[in-house]
Amino acid sequence: MEKLKVKTDKENTKKPIILKAKVKTKRENTLTTVVMFIISLYMLSLGLFNEIKTPYVIFPFSAMFLATGFKLCKIEIDILQEIKRFK
User: Fold this and answer.
1) Membrane-spanning residues where (predicted)?
2) 75: left (phi > 0), else alpha (psi -120 to 50), else beta?
3) pLDDT digits (tens, 9 = 90+) for 33-50
């Protein structure tokens, strides 16, 4: 937490007003992403290594697995679309 000093409009004889402000930074929820990655990997492995392969399990969790994997590797979907357009 940073302290910001603001000068008053009147003379400098009065004490300055001190405001407390939180500095917001751009931070990703990596814990949530890791948990989603592990869940999608588990469900994907259940769908792939089961005797009866159901596409209802494989397709959604493979998409979630890829999306969370890209997010963990700091590769955004916009960058992938730009690469696709570049080719």
Assistant:
1) 30-50, 56-77
2) beta
3) 888 889 998 988 888 888
